[in-house]
Structure formats: C-alpha cells, structure tokens
Design brief:
heterodimer, A: 377 residues, alpha+beta, six-stranded antiparallel β-sheet, four-stranded antiparallel β-sheet, 10 strands, 23% strand, B: 100 residues, mainly alpha, two-stranded antiparallel ribbon, 7 helices, 2 strands, 4% strand
Chain lengths: 377, 100
C-alpha cells in the first residue's frame, strides 16, 4: 500500500526533545528564588541545539540577501557592532550598582548574534561547511575567504594590541579594560565569523531563479530552524517583559519583640525601648531577575520609633542579578513628627537585554511609635 | 567581472575570462539549471555563475558538462567570444530548405 501523498509529517524525536526542554524551562523559570536561574541553563542548552540546527540549513538565501551590496551592508553593520562592543565602557562593580553597563553589552551581543545568523543564511554557511557539502566553486570561494580573513585577523588584532600598548598610558588602560570584556567577545567573533564576513563581501550577486523556478521555499529543516531561532530570541525578550510587568515576589521574616535598655545622654536614668528585627527579600523577574533585601532593627518607646543603629547602605542589599542592572535610588530611614518610623529602599531595575524596559521597585517598613507594623512587604 | 579558478588556487582577478554557450545548450535540451546542477553534482548557483562567466570550471566539471550535452568541451567553452550556434552550423547562410 502506498503512502498517502498529503499525509502530515510526523513529529520528530528532536522536536519532542526540544518541546520537553521548553516545558522544563518554563517550569523551572516559574520556581521562586535562585532556582529559576536553572531555567537559564536550560535556555543555553536550547541555544546550543538551535545553533546546530541552524548550521545544518543550507537553503538559497532570498533575493535580498542574494545581493552583494546587502551582504556588504550586513558585514559593515557587524563591524560597527564590534566597534560598539569595544567602545562600551567596562562594567564597574559596586555595592549599589552590581552590574552597570551590561545592558549595552547584552543588547549589542544579541544584535551581533542576529547578524551572524543573517550572514550565515546569506552565504549558505559555506565558510564553515564540511568538504562533502560544497562543490568546487564553493570550495574555491571558501578557501579564498579564509586566505584573506586570517591575515586580516592577525593585522587587526596584532595591530590593535601593539598600537594600544605602545601609544599612550590611556590606550594601555583601555586595552586592559577591553581584554577582560568586549575584546574577547570581538576576538572570538572575528576568529570564527571573519571568513564568512569576507565571503559575503567578495561573492558576486547570486544568480536569480529563472521564471517559474522557486529556490527559496524552505524545507522542513529550514522551517524548524526558523522556529527555533524565533523562540531563542523571543525568550530573553519575554523574560525582560516579565521583569518589567510581573509583580515582585517577596519573602519576609521578623523576630519577636526584644526589650532593650540603654542609658540617657546624661547617664542618669535608664531608657527602655522595644525592638524587632525585620528582613525582607524581594525577587523581581524570572530567569532575567534580580534580588535585593532590606534588613532593619526598628525600636520604639511609645513616643517615637527609630532604627536601633545608624542606617547606611549596608542595610539595603542589592543581591544577585542575572542580566539585570540595578541602581539604588533611595535607602532612607525617617521618623515622622508623630513618631512613625519609615525605612524605604527604592531601586531602578532594568533588563540588560532591553535596557529601556525598567521599573522602580520599592520596599518599605513602616512602624508606628507603639510598634504596630503599618507596612511590611 | 571577477571570476574564480576551478582549483581555487588563484584569485579571481588573475583568471582569464572563459566564454560559454551553456545557457543555449541547456535551453536546447530543455534542462533547468537545477536539473543540470544535480546531474553534474554542483550547486545551482555554480551553473548560474558559469553561464554568467563569473566562474571558470575545473577540467573535471568541464568534462562532466561535455558528457551531459554530448558535445566536445570546446563547443561549450572558449577563450574567445562564441558565435551563435546557427552561425556555427550554417556559416551565416540560411539552411537550404529555408532558401528553397
């Protein structure tokens, strides 16, 4: 019996495995606390699979990417992105600002990856294709691209290192900073992608199909690769949106009341006050996430509530962040005229993937002069 | 127009232009580029580049093309611009039947 000509294609084992991976990632990301970062590990596995699937697709690029001037435009843009990564200031870690500047890095690197995918499609990934999958013309073109690319790489990298090291003390500072961050990203990009960039630059306009001939129809593998690519780029964007929109989850703890006795300034009479320890931990986002916590020992004596010791930035703790920039806006403790004590921590949280998606997160502990908790997350 | 050598050992600028009548032969046999590419075992674009004169084939590929069309290599490729097939066949004179 012959197979039905229009029978639907069955789901492959790879598709099932990737489906399970995505479900597992979604479940892990939904977990509270640091457990959700395991979702990111699964995401990286997914990205690696996507890279392998995309690399295996060698269909004709469309009429746009078949044109040399468009391909050259992609190469020039890629060069500009590399320069942008090199020019981005090195992130400086500090207590209040744990990962500033990574926003520009992550955004540029994602854009660079997108351009790499475009470039690979435009050149049919001939630059890194095995011998068995290229014909003599493609092999000649690939060899020529490699012959041009590696001397260019040596001159670019060697020249930059030599000039920066010898020119001025400022250039040496820049070199030190660049070698630890963007420099490595750009070096790896050039090492692996420069042949494809050269190939895209030198290959003439591709031959257009004859009337009635269709070359761009993607096969199943091509469609599958496109779906994986869209999902791979959509996940960080979706997680960035979650960071901006989903309410923060808070865990808190407070001790029982403790009576403390101190002496007055004159030292003549004892002062009795009651204190409690408050700790709140706030998690914003899932996967692309940050945590910060406040801890305060608030005391009251029936006349006014205060913090038992001086409030400083150590009472506001920016915690671990994954692809998130955190800027502390305020970390204050005030006692109102009516004796109410307010301890507030406000931070601006933004995704490193889409830096303009940000939100202000506030945590407050408010206690009146009699020790009643008016606000605690 | 820059071309590349079949052996990939020389840069395109150094390769002499090779003229061909691949498109005419292919049209004559009713072959699409894809069919011809599959027959001789090369990429679709390689046939297009050959026809356009952007690529000079290796001797091996030239022989394969010659076998597919059943004509000598020099009937497909030439270092000088090629005359139309009709001119080659009839020397520029109309066929006898047409004259009669």
């Amino acid at each position: 019996m012959s197979a039905h000509p229009h029978r639907r294609r069955g789901v492959s084992q790879t598709e099932i495995a990737i489906g399970i991976l995505l479900v597992l990632m979604a479940l892990t990301l939904a977990l509270p606390g640091r457990a959700s970062t395991f979702g990111l590990l699964i995401y990286f596995v997914f990205v690696v699979i996507t890279i392998f699937v995309v690399r295996g697709v060698r269909q004709e690029p469309g009429s746009w990417m078949g044109r040399r001037f468009i391909r050259r435009g992609v190469v020039v843009t890629l060069c500009a992105v590399c320069i942008g990564i090199l020019a981005t200031p090195r992130p400086i870690y500090s207590e209040t600002n744990p990962v500033p500047g990574t926003g520009a890095y992550v955004g540029l690197v994602m854009f660079m990856l997108l351009l790499n995918v475009l470039l690979g499609g435009a050149t049919q990934r001939v630059a890194g294709a095995p011998e068995s999958s290229v014909d003599e013309r493609q092999e000649a073109l690939r060899n020529r691209a490699h012959r041009i690319a590696y001397p260019v790489l040596v001159v670019l990298v060697g020249g930059t290192l030599a000039v920066s090291d010898l020119a001025t003390s400022q250039s040496r500072v820049w070199l030190d900073a660049t070698l630890s961050w963007g420099g490595w990203i750009v070096f790896l990009e050039l090492l692996f992608v420069l042949p494809a960039m050269v190939l895209a630059f030198i290959e003439p306009d591709r031959v257009r199909p004859e009337p009635g001939e269709t070359l761009t129809a993607p096969g199943n593998r091509g469609r599958f690769a496109v779906v994986l690519l869209v999902v791979a780029f959509a996940i960080p964007i979706a997680l960035s949106v979650l960071l901006a929109l989903v309410p923060p989850s808070t865990t808190n703890a407070s001790s029982g009341s403790m009576v403390a006795t101190t002496t007055s300034a004159t030292g003549n009479q004892p002062l009795v006050k009651t204190c409690r320890y408050f700790l709140a931990n706030v998690q914003v986002g899932r996967g692309i996430q940050t945590e910060f916590s406040i801890n305060a020992v608030a005391c009251w004596n029936g006349a006014r509530a205060t913090e038992s010791y001086g409030l400083g930035t150590p009472d506001c703790h920016p915690g671990d962040s994954v692809a998130v920039s955190v800027s502390t806006l305020a970390c204050t403790s005030t006692t109102a005229p009516d004796g109410t004590f307010t301890f507030a921590y406000r931070a601006l949280v933004s995704s490193s993937v889409i830096p303009f998606l940000d939100r202000t997160v506030s945590v407050e502990v408010v206690i009146d002069k009699n020790g009643h908790v008016l606000d605690f997350p | 127009m820059p071309t590349t050598e079949g052996d990939g050992s020389r840069s395109s600028e150094a390769a002499p232009r090779l003229y061909n009548r691949l498109a005419a032969l292919r049209a004559d046999r009713g072959l699409s580029r894809q069919t011809l590419a599959d027959t001789v075992g090369v990429n679709y674009q390689t046939i297009g580049y050959l026809e356009r004169g952007d690529y000079n084939p290796s001797l091996e590929l030239a022989f394969r093309l010659s076998e597919v069309f059943g004509v000598p290599i020099e009937a497909i490729f030439s270092r000088r611009p090629m005359r139309p097939m009709s001119e080659e066949l009839y020397g520029g004179q109309p066929p006898a039947e047409a004259v009669g």
